[in-house]
UniProtKB/TrEMBL annotation:
The lineage of its organism: Eukaryota, Metazoa, Chordata, Craniata, Vertebrata. GO terms for cellular component: Dsl1/NZR complex. Pfam families: NBAS_11th. One of its GO terms (molecular function) is SNARE binding. This is NBAS subunit of NRZ tethering complex. InterPro entries: NBAS_C. It comes from Oncorhynchus mykiss (Rainbow trout). One of its GO terms (biological process) is retrograde vesicle-mediated transport, Golgi to endoplasmic reticulum. Residues 900-1016 form the NBAS subunit of NRZ tethering complex C-terminal domain.
Length: 1253
């Protein structure tokens, strides 16, 4: 019952309201228990604001506690799986990371701790629990798929959550890789302008249709075949199987190269398939065959034919405008027939088939292709008087000259002097689209930059070239080409010259041209708008080229600089330059300065970063740092921003300086004082630091100066290790400059007291060379210290004497006699000092030293210490000290250190009370302590009870001292005697028990403890009853008037019973009856258990009943739970019959009342089990069952198991005889005594009764 209440409170703590009856009913149902834990975890994941990791850990611990105490039908690893699944599905990246800590992330993980280990166990030093690998993979995949399917676009946060979930599995099995691939496919689809829901991608059965959709949506998709193939791979278009295509590849390759096969398109597809699946050695010949086949396809597409006739009809109108004849080779020979049919029809085809033209130009943009294929496009080389004879229109000649340009260009930009004009007029001639030229330029860029530039010069709009330049990776060559392109265009705008065939501009050095144009446009302004745009682009690419050059210089330094990122990321650029300042190499330093100037990084940042480096990571001595700062003149610039300088130095520099490095600290504070002394807000100013360091540096070694001045630690703790007889006086003069935590400063007297304590225990190289070992040594050490007592204030003298007599070290090292002697000598010394003080009068500088009242207070303190030391010889204290129990020894030690101070003695007495020690011992302890303590056993117990109540209330100050407060309280209550009455305890505990704001369960348990040990008053009994009722009926307002007597409770029970329709409500009533005192009605029909069972059966039998469970088994469980309790049913209502409930097929234990209502016609194994028979025999109901069908199995059970159950067969036979069942009694005895079945007759049974009974 109490475990169920615990679970309800846990659920309520997390925001889930469930009655106790629900918990009791679901504790054996795996499905309901699983659903409850899932609901708890998911509810936590939905809380706003999101809960922290510590709250999640608490939820896991609560799950494990619930599983251990109530829901044992679940396994601990199931709880972990539920928890991890909820973390993964919570929609928070930090929760996904936490889930990764609770699973095995790879199949080869060596962490095989069972998942039943909790976070609490890990906190105690155990290993963390982890879900096994295969289950983890399933959970991760389920979460990732849920996120993926619920997302709407690639940028949906759920996509990133799905990716984070999948990254948890580090070895990436095939299923995880497939999910990662389908996520990656979304970005590819977006690049093809395909708008499709992620869920549609997953559900698409024929994923090849997605590839088709990409091609139809994006006009350039066909140019990105590699990307399409990658997309097909990501989408698993071919499935997950790897087909071995050996024989198929050979067949396709042979068929694709077969000249007799006239379907060129089909041959192209066959060769493409062969190239995709061929081994590496076959790629080159297949590429050659594919190139030849492509040429044939192009011929067929444009109807390209040649005719050897009319060789001279075209030269006059084309060659003269095309350039000098010497620039081309004469044509003639057998190849002349290729141009025979080059007529206007060809031009019409080219003009009307734009896509075909694009394909042609794209395919032939490589100069190597032209080198191998141009022979098929040339007419015959015929040498005539006029040179080269061409056939065709002017546009065709221009086209042929363009495609022949790779041979004309020599890889130098200077080669543009002949082709520039024709490249610029090319778009007009063939009307090529912008995208085609850009694609041609981009494709030619890696192989032939001259050809690429020629395509760009042919663009109709100059600025369109940016689209090509931006597609190229940033390199010196690509940026120079862009700058050269815009220099040419600017020059042409200012001085039109590109129409000339052999203009000297084409012969100029590109670098020189870029320099001259840049210099000219920079020196002048007020340019036309179109020229201004070109100048802006030129400056952009010049800037990028400069950045790249600088980055390459940085890369050459070996500092790990990312060149591309440096030229594009402003933040990275600044951080890189600042990082370069962290060097002692003068050349690198100069580079960082030039870069800072180049990119407008403040010089102050450069100098500050370098200064931080000098202090933290340079490895230089302080003298070298000072010299470098002066050489580089860093300080002149840094002091211009004193507030920022102070902030940086305090935050980054001071924390890196060792506290014992006094020279470095001195230089640090010197810089602060010179730059920003007025900006320092600390108690100790830089000027004071400088004075302290200069003095301390000369008199101490190994002092942790930072610890001494951090204003958090006690300065005396830092000074104690370095104090000696040689420097204590000098340091004491500086003490008033050291602040103490909480306010005030260190006094010279406190410094001397600290040194004397060190002198007493550890000696001094000059004054006490050997540390004391024996009792005489310690007395001698005190005498040595006593010589310096006149330097101490009375209060510090008391502290010194307490340190050497009442410290843990003193208790361990010194005997009581030595401590007494030291205390006596100390009191004597203080009396002498008081007399000297009186003689000197009140004119002392330190008025406290001459104040006799302070001496009187000190002597009073020492007098109590001496009296306390005398009590250590008491027999009770010695018995504690000599005990074998460590706890009692600790009592003795604590009393020894207490000095009989009231707070310490009270704390010890309270500890003894909460530990359950007898009150007589506590009283004896209080009687031994000296002084006016005003403590009694009653006072001590009251404080102890208050502490326990505070722990029960969740007070963080005491809860750690009482991890089991109820056990402590029960121990104290048990130990109470006549000194403290039950009324006292009740008076102390009643406010807590009456406080409705407190949790119900602790209040119930407190009252139960009092009820078990005392006779409670009626009001307290009723209060306990009210609390128990409220704990069960949490959703119902119950007052004391509703339950203060049995009749009212019975009336409330009947009212609730009449409103009950569900099994959970009936179960709640069962719990309520157990929480109340037993109600044994004279009429068994009014017994609440009988009434409850009868109503439950009636409800179950009714049409449309909401009760759907194994009713017979549940009622049997109820009877079993009552049997060992005070609610055990008497014989008149104990089940004596069984009823096979229609529709359930289970037995149902019933009283005689129910037996008459539902007579049993037959008994079988399914309706009568051994447990029921044993219960009947335990209740002595053998006689009552004779008229029922239960008697035969009951008597057989008695005979077969009478030894196990402890039943007396002869006594049972006697009871049968007394009830008038003579034949049954005789038959039972005959069987019991082993009579042969053939002799066991009715007559024999009646006869043996007279003889044996």
């Amino acid at each position: 019952f109490m475990d169920a209440i615990d679970v309800v409170e846990v659920l309520e703590k997390h925001g889930l309201q469930k009655p106790v009856s629900y918990v009791r009913s679901s504790q054996t149902s795996t499905e309901e228990a699983h659903a409850l834990m899932v609901k708890l975890c998911r509810h936590t994941g939905r809380r706003t604001p999101p809960v922290s990791e510590s709250v999640w850990r608490g939820v896991l611990q609560d799950l494990l506690d619930m599983q251990h105490s109530v829901y044992t039908c679940l396994l601990p690893d199931t709880c972990h799986q539920i928890f991890v699944e909820s973390l993964l599905c919570s929609g928070r990246p930090e929760n996904v990371v936490l889930a990764g800590q609770l699973i095995h992330c790879s199949a080869v993980s060596h962490d095989v701790v069972p998942v039943s280990v909790s976070f609490r166990d890990r906190g105690r030093g155990g290993l963390s629990a982890k879900v096994n690998y295969h289950t983890a993979v399933e959970l991760v995949l389920a979460a990732a798929r849920e996120y993926f399917n619920s997302s709407t676009t690639l940028t949906d946060p759920c996509i990133e959550l799905a990716r984070e979930c999948l990254k948890l599995i580090t070895d990436c099995p095939p299923a995880v890789q497939e999910e990662m691939d389908i996520i990656s496919s979304l970005s590819v689809l977006e690049s093809f302008n395909v708008n499709i829901l992620p869920l549609q991608v997953r559900l698409r059965v024929e994923r090849l249709s997605i590839i088709e959709q990409c091609i139809s949506q994006c006009s350039k998709a066909y140019t990105q075949s590699a990307l399409l193939l990658d997309l097909a791979s990501l989408l698993r278009v071919a499935g997950n199987t790897h087909t071995h295509l050996g024989e198929e590849f050979n067949l396709c390759s042979l068929l694709g190269q077969c000249e007799g096969y006239m379907d060129l398109r089909a041959r192209q597809e066959l060769l493409a398939f062969s190239l995709t699946h061929c081994p590496p050695a076959s790629i080159h010949p297949l590429l050659a065959a594919s190139s030849d086949l492509q040429t044939q396809v192009l011929y067929q597409a444009v109807n390209y034919q040649m005719d050897p006739l009319e060789p001279e009809c075209f030269w006059d109108e084309t060659v003269q405008s095309a350039g000098p004849p010497s620039s081309v080779s004469p044509l003639g020979g057998a190849a002349g027939d290729l141009l025979h049919r080059t007529t206007n029809r060809t031009i019409e085809v080219l003009a009307s088939t734009g896509l075909t033209t694009k394909a042609v130009l794209t395919a032939v943009s490589d100069h190597s292709w032209w080198k191998n294929q141009l022979n098929y496009l040339r007419p015959l080389h015929v040498r005539t008087q006029r040179g080269l004879y061409w056939h065709g229109k002017h546009e065709m000649l221009t086209f042929l000259k363009q495609v022949k340009s790779p041979q004309s260009f020599s890889g130098q930009f200077k080669g543009l002097y002949w082709h520039g004009k024709h490249m610029l007029t090319f778009p007009v001639s063939l009307s090529l689209s912008l995208s085609v030229l850009l694609q041609l330029a981009s494709d030619a860029f890696p192989r032939d930059m001259t050809l690429s530039l020629a395509y760009l010069l042919a663009l109709p709009q100059v600025l369109d070239a940016n689209r090509c330049f931006e597609m190229q990776s940033h390199s010196a060559l690509s940026l120079q080409l862009a700058a050269y392109y815009y220099s040419l265009q600017i020059y042409n705008h200012l001085v039109p010259c590109l129409k000339a065939n052999t203009h000297t501009l084409y012969r100029a050095d590109p670098k020189e041209l870029i320099r001259l144009v840049t210099q000219h446009v920079t020196a002048h302004s007020d340019w036309p708008a179109d020229v201004e745009e070109l100048i802006g682009q030129l400056q952009v690419y010049n800037e990028r080229l400069t950045d790249l050059t600088q980055a390459q210089v940085l890369q050459g330094l070996g500092r790990g600089v990312d060149v591309r990122r440096f030229s594009s990321d402003t933040h990275y650029k600044k951080q890189t330059i600042l990082g370069l300042t962290e060097t002692l190499d003068d050349s690198v330093w100069r580079i960082s300065l030039s870069l800072a100037q180049r990119y407008s990084i403040p010089l102050w940042d450069i100098y500050m970063t370098h200064l931080e480096f000098l202090f933290t990571d340079s490895g230089l001595s302080t003298k070298d740092i000072e010299g470098r700062v002066d050489t580089l003149a860093l300080f002149d610039s840094l002091k211009s921003e004193p507030e920022s300088f102070h902030s940086h130095m305090s935050k980054y520099v001071l924390t890196s300086v060792e506290g014992t490095d006094l020279p470095r600290l001195l230089y640090y504070y010197t810089l602060l004082e010179e730059c920003c002394g007025s900006y320092c807000s600390s108690v100790i100013t830089p000027d004071t630091h400088i004075k302290l360091l200069k003095k301390l540096r000369s008199v101490t070694t190994g002092l942790d100066y930072r610890k001494m001045t951090d204003e958090v630690s006690d300065p005396l703790a830092a000074l104690e290790p370095v104090l000696t007889s040689q420097n204590v006086l000098s340091i004491s003069k500086l003490a008033n400059r050291l602040p103490r935590p909480g306010g005030g400063v260190v006094s010279a007297s406190a410094v001397h007291a600290t040194w004397l304590r060190k002198l007493f225990w550890r000696g001094d190289p000059q004054v006490l060379k050997r540390p004391p070992q024996t009792e005489q040594d310690y007395l001698h050490a005190y005498d040595t210290c006593a010589k310096y007592l006149d330097r101490l204030l009375p209060a510090d003298a008391v502290h010194f004497l307490d340190d050497i007599t009442f410290s843990p070290l003193a208790v361990n090292q010194l005997s009581v006699s030595v401590r007494v002697e030291v205390m006596k000598r100390g009191m004597k010394a203080l009396r002498q000092l008081r007399e000297k003080s009186r003689k000197r009068g009140v004119d002392e500088v330190e008025s406290d030293r001459s104040d006799t009242s302070s001496f009187d207070h000190a002597l009073s303190h020492l007098q109590q210490s001496l009296a306390h030391l005398d009590t250590l010889g008491h027999s009770f204290i010695l018995s504690l000290k000599d005990s074998n129990q460590e706890r009692l020894q600790n009592y003795s030690r604590t009393y020894d250190l207490s000095r009989s101070e009231r707070s310490k003695v009270q704390a010890l007495a309270v500890t003894m009370a909460t530990d359950g020690q007898p009150l007589e011992q506590i009283g004896e302890l209080l009687g031994i302590a000296v002084g006016n303590l005003d403590l009694s056993i009653k006072t001590v117990l009251q404080v102890a009870v208050e502490n326990v109540v505070s722990a029960l209330s969740g007070d963080e100050d005491v809860v750690n001292d009482y991890p089991e407060p109820l056990m402590v309280l029960e121990g104290m209550v048990t130990a109470v005697d006549s000194v403290v009455s039950s009324d006292d305890l009740l008076a102390w505990l009643r406010p807590f028990c009456s406080d409705g704001s407190r949790a119900v369960r602790p209040r119930i348990e407190v009252l139960q403890i009092l009820e078990n040990n005392f006779s409670l008053r009626d009001s307290d009994v009723h209060l306990l009853l009210l609390y128990r009722t409220q704990a069960v009926l949490k959703d119902l307002q119950v007052e004391m008037d509703d339950i203060d007597n049995e009749e009212k409770r019975y009336r409330l029970f009947l009212q609730l019973l009449g409103d009950s329709r569900k099994w959970e409500e009936f179960q709640q009533l069962m719990l309520l009856l157990q929480a109340w005192p037993p109600m044994m009605k004279e009429e068994c029909e009014r017994n609440p258990w009988v009434v409850l069972t009868s109503s439950l059966i009636e409800c179950c039998r009714g049409h449309g009943s909401e009760v759907r469970l194994d009713l017979g088994q549940e009622i049997m469980n109820m009877v079993r739970s009552l049997y060992p309790s005070k609610h055990k049913l008497p014989a008149q209502v104990t089940p004596t019959g069984v009823w096979e409930f229609k529709g359930h097929g289970r037995t149902l234990g019933l009283s005689p009342v129910f037996l008459t209502m539902y007579p049993v016609s037959q008994v079988c194994d399914s309706t009568c089990d051994p447990e029921l028979l044993s219960l009947l025999l335990d209740a002595g109901l053998l006689v009552g069952c004779v008229p029922s069908p239960l008697y035969p199995p009951l008597s057989a059970h008695l005979l077969s198991r009478h030894r196990e159950g402890g039943w007396d067969v002869e006594k049972a036979a006697s009871e049968l005889l007394q009830a008038g069942y003579r034949a049954q009694a005789g038959s039972l005895l005959l069987t019991y005594r082993g009579t042969h079945p053939g002799l066991s007759t009715f007559t024999t049974a009646l006869t043996v009764i007279k003889k044996w009974l």
